[in-house]
Design brief:
This protein has 415 residues and is an alpha/beta fold. 44% of the residues lie in helices and 14% in strands. The chain folds into two domains: 32-145 and 306-353, 3-Layer(aba) Sandwich (D-Maltodextrin-Binding Protein, domain 2), CATH 3.40.190; 147-304 and 358-414, Periplasmic binding protein-like II (D-Maltodextrin-Binding Protein, domain 2), CATH 3.40.190.10. The strands form four sheets. A five-stranded mixed sheet has the order 2-1-3-13-6, with helices on one face. The model is unreliable at 1-29 (pLDDT under 50).
Length: 415
């Protein structure tokens, strides 16, 4: 009987050990993590997908964890959609925002992780790091470092022996020559609100850094108005009068096709569209120049911006994976090819890819002191400007209506 008890006890222990081994084996299988990623650059979906897959392969090899993605890349209303995601607590892990206009807001709301101790921070170029730093803490990894204003067709300008204008009078002279040669001076692509919205930072930035240095302070203190920017509508009216008539039929993708066709001389757009132009014509040549605003050449400046940047949500359920991804964005070995595929400027000390021809044209102005840091305009005001500039083009809003709408949007943003 005693031997029988020993036997059953041994069997019981063996069963327990076997169960533990089985459980351990089941738990040691490849773990799966899905990252929810929000990036407001749908035109680069292919490039991001390739790079995210590279990260997933590397991370699985290093940790055994299999990473998949729920990648959201909306075309319109990006800011509103992202705010909705946060408000509904949908579990965003990594998200993009505008470093100058949105990063302070999201940081104040508690939506950005402190990344100061992450390895990528030591790789950032000295003139880039301050832009993504809030109260002494790094809050994002920068993607786009841009020099932009108006893009121009170099072939047309060379053919007509004209140079980019710095005053309205010079621009009007160019317009006459361009029309006489059978070209359309300006491409207007107003179907997507974010494109006419580009006029706002160019106009505000030009005046802010020349003849209206207190404009933003006055607006933030409730004492200012867009009416204070004399000549605000001068360039807008010139563009609208000398571009394609059906501007609201042309979206960003169609704009790439139209501008690369060679029929248009100028386009208020940024070099972030470079790949779109080159996809239509691999030999297409364009430059970047300031946008003239009035007869004062000091208002014609290049916008220097660190725009789209990536942040980590501090409430992420997969923060360790999200942080690994953020660091991989500036990977010493792989990020060169990634940034080059996006046609972005270098932001890391390890980036060695060649500077693009259009960047060199913009740099000629910056080296002359004709550049400024992208102005801190509330995103709600920029969003509103896209809609009101559409309505102004159609004749549905007067100049007074536009000023009132922009002033009200700024006041509302302060609340």
């Amino acid at each position: 009987m005693k031997k029988l008890c020993y036997f059953f006890t041994a069997v019981f222990i063996a069963v327990i050990l076997l169960s533990a081994i089985v459980t351990s084996c089941e738990g040691s299988g490849p773990k799966q993590v899905e990252l929810k990623i929000f990036i407001s650059q749908p035109r680069f979906r292919k490039q991001y997908t390739v790079y995210l897959n590279q990260f997933a392969d590397q991370y699985k090899n290093q940790t055994g964890v299999e990473v998949t993605y729920n990648l959201e890349m909306p075309d319109e209303n990006n800011s509103q959609l992202l705010r909705t995601r946060f408000a509904s607590e949908e579990g965003i892990d990594v998200f993009s925002c505008h470093a100058i206009n949105e990063l302070p807001e999201y940081t104040k709301a508690g939506y950005t992780e402190d990344l100061s101790s992450q390895p990528f921070v030591n790789l950032l170029l000295d003139n880039i790091k301050p832009v993504i730093t809030i109260d002494g803490k790094v809050r994002a990894v920068p993607l786009e470092s841009l020099f932009w204003g108006i893009v121009y067709n170099k072939k047309i300008f060379d053919e007509l022996n004209i140079k980019p204008a710095l005053t309205i009078s010079e621009l009007k002279d160019n317009v006459k020559k361009i029309k006489a040669a059978g070209y359309t001076p300006f491409l207007l692509a107003y179907k997507d609100q974010w494109i006419p919205q580009l006029l706002l930072p160019l106009i505000v930035g030009g005046f802010l850094n020349s003849q209206n240095p207190d404009f933003i302070d006055n607006m933030n203190n409730g004492r200012g108005s867009f009416a204070d920017l004399k000549d605000f509508f001068t360039i807008i009216d010139l563009l609208n009068a000398n571009g394609n008539k059906r501007a609201l039929d042309v979206d960003a993708n169609r704009g790439n096709v139209e501008f690369a066709s060679g029929k248009y001389a100028m386009y208020v757009q940024g070099p972030w569209m470079a790949q779109g132009f080159l996809d239509q014509d691999k030999d297409f040549q364009f430059g970047v120049a300031p946008l003239p605003l009035n007869e004062n050449p000091k208002t014609a400046l290049i916008n220097i911006a660190v725009s789209t940047s990536l942040c980590v949500n501090p409430k992420s359920e997969h923060k360790d994976v999200a942080l690994a991804l953020i660091n991989y964005i500036l990977d010493k070995n792989d990020s060169d090819a990634f940034y080059e595929s996006l046609k972005f400027n270098p932001v890391s000390k390890t980036h060695k890819f060649a500077t693009y021809p259009w960047v060199k044209t913009a740099m000629t102005y910056i080296e002359q002191g004709k550049g400024y840091i992208d102005p801190k305009i509330p995103q709600a005001v920029k969003d509103e400007s896209g809609a009101v500039f559409q309505s102004y083009f159609l004749g549905d809003m007067s100049k007074a209506d536009v000023i009132k709408a922009l002033d009200n949007a700024w006041k509302s943003s302060l609340k």
